[in-house]
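Dear colleagues,

As part of the handover before I leave the project, I'm documenting each prediction I ran so the next person doesn't have to rerun anything. This entry is a single chain, and its sequence is reproduced below.
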Amino acid sequence: MQWFIQDVNIGKNLRSLREQHGYSQYRLVVKLHLMGSNMSRSTYSKIETGTRNIRISDFLALKQIYGVDFSEFFAGLLPEENSHL
């Protein structure tokens, strides 16, 4: 099992994507279960708050659910995007 270790908090972006697509945490986790994940809603909540890491397979499933490019998950977090600060 492989994990992404969050050295930057992508949780805000995960929450934003979830809300943009009109999903509650519960509904999103149900969709993840249909794709083979065994993630609980409380685990997903911890990922959004940055207190838990995300499995790569779950990250790939989220990409598929949302139909977005990987860059959407990291928007505003990359150093070159913040260089104007």
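The first strand starts at residue 3 and ends at 4. The mean pLDDT is 88.

All the best with the project,
I.
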